[in-house]
Design goal:
single chain; alpha/beta; Aspartate Aminotransferase, domain 1; Aspartate Aminotransferase, domain 2; binds pyridoxal-5'-phosphate; PyrdxlP-dep_Trfase; pyridoxal phosphate; PyrdxlP-dep_Trfase_major
Length: 341
């Protein structure tokens, strides 16, 4: 049975082109830099984001963590928003792997320069050293950060000699929403991580990009973390298709999300802040009791829809390559039915 899966964009299936490319990929030992398909992907990725070099990592989490490890020293503080993926969804890795502290900033949406400035530590013998500024675009909550905001944060960080890492898991969604080239976003960071495996439909993998010197050191750290991969060209082959064929179609997911948000907002008892729907994610709350809320995922599943339960008081529905406009109509019809219960 085919399910309509709106839990995330990570659930997307690799396309037939990806499967064909993986099947026929020429591979080698990538730890020895001997895998031509991986070398091709990394060169392509670096070029797309306007950086000197790039490196494949098995997950976005490893990409962020290897970047933090490469930028910082033990005891450093990493300044970031309190809702950042590295704070909430990476299992405490900054503390465990890099021995750094996260200095979280309370944000309504994203980090702003007037919040960043007072968080930078002065040179004081008692205080930790600020080692890194971390931004997201889009944020883990699906908000898109305006280019000028990124520029201000970046310039401020550099004024204090601080490197900037961008968690751009859905970087191409941000570029689509901003109507700009990804390079216009990544010009405001020293390193960037973005996922091949989310809306771009690759089965596995993310990219870290930065200066050649940074990536050389990051590659050593990746090896230490167990991320040195051998015939990884099979994964790179799908990644190349992701970057050449899948980045241009994300507007469709955004349009479907906007449509879903507008239709959900029309249902009595559902509350959607339409101004927060900028990419493929729709967050909403419902005027229902805990039992109704707890029962929703199972009810949706009976209708052929895989949807996540509530997190932090909100539901999140996500459109993706495998979700059509008709699928969205079915989701809306089911939500109407269940809201009447
Ligand atoms: C998905 C995501 C990541 C990386 O997640 P993995 O599941 O480890 O690939 C990092 N940051 C953000 C904002 C994300 O949404």
């Amino acid at each position: 049975m085919r399910y309509i899966d709106i839990r995330s964009d990570t659930v997307t299936q690799p396309t037939q082109k990806m499967r064909d490319a993986m099947y026929t990929a020429v591979v080698g030992d990538d730890v020895n830099r001997d895998d031509p398909t991986m070398l091709e992907l990394e060169e392509l990725a670096a070029k797309l984001v306007g950086k000197e070099a790039a490196m494949f990592v098995p997950s976005g989490t490893m990409g962020n963590q290897v970047s933090i490890m490469t930028h910082t020293r033990r005891g450093d503080e990493v300044i970031c928003g309190e809702l950042s993926h590295i704070v909430i969804h990476e299992v405490g890795a900054p503390a465990v792997l890099s021995g750094v502290m996260v200095r979280t900033i309370k944000t309504a949406d994203y980090l702003r320069p007037e919040q960043l400035l007072p968080a930078i530590r002065p040179d004081d013998i008692h205080m930790p050293h600020t080692g890194l500024v971390e931004m997201e675009n889009p944020t883990a909550m699906g908000r898109v950060v305006p280019l000028d905001m990124m520029r201000q944060n970046y310039e401020l960080a550099h004024q204090y000699g601080l490197p900037v890492h961008l968690d751009g898991a859905r970087l191409f969604n941000a570029a689509t929403a901003l109507g700009c080239d990804v390079k216009e976003i990544t010009q405001y960071c020293d390193s960037v991580m973005f996922c091949l495996s989310k809306g771009l439909c690759a089965p596995v993998g993310s990219i870290v990009a930065g200066s050649k010197e940074f990536i050389d050191r990051a590659r050593k750290n990746r090896k230490m973390l167990g991320g040195g991969l051998r015939q990884a060209g099979f994964l790179a082959a799908a990644g190349i298709v992701a970057l050449t064929e899948m980045t241009g179609r994300l507007q469709e997911d955004h349009d479907n999300a906007r449509y879903m948000a507008e239709e959900l907002a029309k249902i009595p008892g559902i509350h959607v802040d339409l101004s927060t729907v900028e990419i493929s994610m729709v967050f909403f709350t419902v005027d229902k009791d805990a039992d109704w809320i707890a029962a929703l995922p199972a009810r949706m599943l009976e209708k052929g829809i895989k949807a996540s339960g509530i997190e932090d008081g909100q539901f999140r529905f996500v459109t993706n390559h495998d979700v059509t406009r008709e699928d969205v109509d079915h989701v809306i019809a089911c939500m109407k039915e269940f809201m009447a219960l």
